[in-house]
Write a structure and sequence with these properties.
Blueprint (H helix, E strand, L loop, with lengths): L1 H22 L10 E2 L2 E5 L7 E5 L7 E2 L10 H5 L1 H16 L4 E4 L2 E3 L2 E3 L2 E4 L14 H9 L4 H5 L5 H18 L26
Parallel strand pairs: 1-7
Antiparallel strand pairs: 2-3, 4-6, 5-8, 6-7
């Protein structure tokens, strides 16, 4: 379990570094959230041979991304760190073509820890998936783009969803012969390479 925990957090950290490299040069974007590293410590003489070590975060600990859509988190919606965390989730979702989502973004200010990862397919990039796939569906339904999503040129998830629903209703009502409609297939987003080898 602790090995998987390290793999999850450190993989999310690698995504966050690429996100920072893309976002920081943008005019007006400013500081980018950082996922702090987590280290695995082996203590063979101890009853619990493996432990994790990470930097202690001092200050007000805030959950920026929610597991439950019913929970309203104003610090997530209104704060700069919260908005940038939501944009980071959108960015990872788009980068991995909807296959992976970093969840449970929480921490102090722009320093985040104890994150989770949800994957569309079990075993994607070596993840057992410590979060349910429903998190991805929930994110798709609830994410509201903000100015940082726009700065990065991320596609609105809502617009795509609404367009698809409209197209379906038009097809069924007005056009009996739906074979004449051309289907547009979105270009596949380039997936990032594996950052961390899964030899654990």
């Amino acid at each position: 379990f602790v090995i998987q925990e390290c793999y999850v957090q450190n993989t999310a950290r690698e995504y966050a570094k690429i996100y920072a490299a893309e976002a920081e040069p943008l005019e007006g974007f400013g500081e980018v959230p950082e996922i702090i590293p987590i280290f695995l410590v082996h203590r063979p003489a101890n009853n619990i041979p493996y432990a994790t070590v990470e930097e202690e975060l001092v200050g007000e600990f805030v959950k920026y991304s929610v597991r439950d859509g019913k929970e309203v988190n104003f610090l997530r919606r209104d704060s700069e760190a919260g908005q940038k965390c939501c944009t980071f989730q959108h960015w990872v979702y788009e980068k991995t073509n909807g296959s992976l989502l970093v969840t449970d973004l929480q921490g102090v200010g722009m320093k985040l820890t104890d994150v989770g990862i949800a994957t569309l397919a079990k075993g994607y990039k070596g993840f057992k998936g410590n979060c349910s796939i429903s998190f991805i569906e929930q994110f798709r339904a609830l994410h509201q783009c903000n100015k940082y999503c726009e700065m990065l040129g991320l596609k609105s998830l809502r617009t795509t969803h609404q367009k698809q629903r409209k197209a379906t209703s038009i097809k069924s009502k007005n056009l009996p012969n739906s074979s004449t409609i051309k289907k547009t297939v979105p270009k596949k987003a380039r997936e990032p390479r594996d950052f961390i080898s899964s030899e654990h």
